[in-house]
Amino acid sequence: MLADRERFIKGWLRVKISCIQMNVRVGQPNVNASRVEALVKRAVRRKPDVIVLPELWNTGFAPRKIDRSMADNGGVHAKALCGRLAKEHGVNIVAGSVLRRAGNVLYNTAYVFDRAGNCIAEYNKTHLFSPSGEGEAYTAGDRLVTFPLDGVLCGILICYDLRFGELSRALALSGAKALFIPAEWRREATEQMVALLRARAIEDQVFAALCNGCGEAHGTTFGGKSAIIDPLGNVLARAGRGETILSAAIDFAVQEKARLDLPVFSDRRPDLYTGLCEANLE
Fold it and tell me: Residue ranges of the alpha helices (H) in 49-97?
């Protein structure tokens, strides 16, 4: 417990997060890149410690419709833009995700940049949204990712990943104190989105910041409603439907107290859960 407290003291105490809920223009990566730059410059006026972008901000989310040639080859353009913005403004950027090409394979890839503009994490979405054909068009990632921001370990999910509690629990067990979720949730599912976000924050005793997109893509309307949740499930900030910048300060003293008052992790029974899983496979 003492070692945990020492790590807590060395890390963040209060952190301001700004989520850029962006109206992504489907199939217009150059237009979207310019918009990202303009919105980041607007967001830094609020003096955030972390800026978060939505899912697939370069092309929009329409797996069956997006031209493969629009994918960012090796993520070069996204890294150049977001790395430069992070360095220029001295801010951490969880740079949403972009459609990335690696040879003949397409990935839904998230990048994270520190205040010096270094790309410190890369995550390929592991749960692909089969109803939209994402699993047919793109390739799933095969590993989970954590990263330190200003001394605090964080984790990342992308959109549909939020429905899989095993993933966020694994990140929390690895030490993540905050989860960042770039997303493009459909309008009709945004209430489920916030309910799941609150559930993940409560059950894993983490802060959770979800940055959703808005606008339309080939008949699908994306619903906004980005939100920042504390480990008790309190909604610290929630956006409306349109393009906006959502900000909230998170206080890690709240998390420390929650984990001391309700020791969920030390009360777990992983031996029992493993046994149940094995039994179900027989």
Answer: 76-89
Angle of CA points 221, 224, 228, to nearest 5°: 155
Domain with 200, as residue range(s), is 2-281
Give the active site residues.
Answer: 55, 125, 159
For residue 119, what are the β-bridge partners?
113
pTM of the predicted model as reported, rounded to 2 decimal places: 0.93
Question: Could you tell me how many residues make up the chain?
Answer: 282
The tokens for 111 are 């990048």
* Domain CATH for 252: 3.60.110.10
Other beta carbons less than 10 A from residue 163's beta carbon: 15
Q: Do residues 231 and 260 touch, judged by C-beta distance below 8 A?
A: no
Helix, strand and coil in the chain, % to nearest 5: 35, 30, 35
Cβ-based neighbours of 181, under 8 Å, separated by 6 or more: 156, 157, 158, 159, 161, 162, 197, 208, 209, 210, 211
| Count of domains forming the chain | 1
Q: Which two tokens stand for residue 114?
A: 């520190």
Residue pair 157/168 in contact by the 8 Å Cβ criterion: yes
- For residue 254, the surrounding DSSP H or E stretch is helix 252-261
State pLDDT tens for residues 92-150. Answer: 999 999 999 999 999 999 999 999 999 999 999 999 999 999 999 999 999 999 999 99
